[in-house]
Amino acid sequence: MTTDKDLSMDGHAAVAVFSAKGVDITPNKDQGVFKVVKRQGLDGDRPMIGDRVSVHYTGKLLNGKKFDSSLDRKEPFCFNLGKGQVIKAWDMSVMSMQRGEVCMLLCKPEYAYGAAGNPPKVPPNSSLLFEVELLNFEGELLTDDGGIMRRIKVRGDGYSNPNDGATVEVHLEGRCGDRLFDSRDVRFVVGEGEDKGIPLGVDRAMEKMQKGECCIIYLKSKYGFGKEGKPEYKIGPNTELVYEVTLKDFQKAKESWEMELNEKLDLSARVKHKGNQYFKAGQFFQAVIQYQRIVSWLEMECGAGMEQQKRIQELLLLSQLNLALCFLRLKELSHVVENCNKVIELDGKNEKALYRRGEAHLLRNEFSLAMADFRHVLQVNSSNRAARAQISMCQLKMREHHERDKRIYANMFQKFAEHDAKVGKMKRRRDESLKSNMNGEVGIKRRRRSQDCP
Question: 130 catalytic, yes or no?
Answer without folding.
Answer: yes
